[in-house]
Amino acid sequence: MSTLRGTVPDMAQTARMASEAMESWLRDLDGYCGLIMLTDEPGGLARIITLWESAEAEQRARATRATMRDRLSATAGMTVESLEVYELPVLQLLPAPTDA
């Protein structure tokens, strides 16, 4: 998880645009499983979580991701505050509701 800090107007829209730029590039990395972006515009924080099939896949992609993250954060006017690696022992997602 990368934590970015900065004052960005309409941070949620900026995150959506950044995710579009990142998604096609990330899909080419071996072991990539998904992306989550969290924003806190009043607090000036964004958190970017990338999901990987294994710790080894995350490690192999780390340097390449750092280059992309640093470039995108600078373009958005944010600074990288931290990078943290976590295990994901549980992930439960409910299916999207259907219109019946």
Order of helices and strands: EHEEHE
**Poorly predicted segments:** none
Distance between the termini: 37 Å
**Tally of distinct domains:** 1
Number of strands: 4
Compute the CA-based radius of gyration.
Answer: 14 Å
* CATH classification, class level: Alpha Beta
What about the largest sheet? Answer: 4 strands, antiparallel
Strand order within the widest sheet? 2-3-1-4
Classification by helices and strands:
alpha+beta
The number of helical elements comes to 2
Quaternary organization = single chain
CATH architecture group name:
2-Layer Sandwich
Helix amount: 25-40%
Overall shape: globular
Mean pLDDT: 91
Q: Could you say what the CATH topology is called?
A: Alpha-Beta Plaits
Strand content: 25-35%
Write the layout of secondary structure elements.
Layout: E1 2-5, H1 11-27, E2 32-40, E3 45-52, H2 55-76, E4 79-83
Antiparallel strand pairs: 1-3, 1-4, 2-3
Helix pairs in contact: 1-2
Q: How would you explain this protein's 3D organization?
A:
The protein is built from two helices and four strands, in the order βαββαβ. With 100 residues, the protein is of the alpha+beta class. The protein has a single domain (2-83), classed as 2-Layer Sandwich (Alpha-Beta Plaits), CATH 3.30.70. Helix 1 crosses helix 2. It starts with a strand and ends in a 17-residue tail after the last strand.
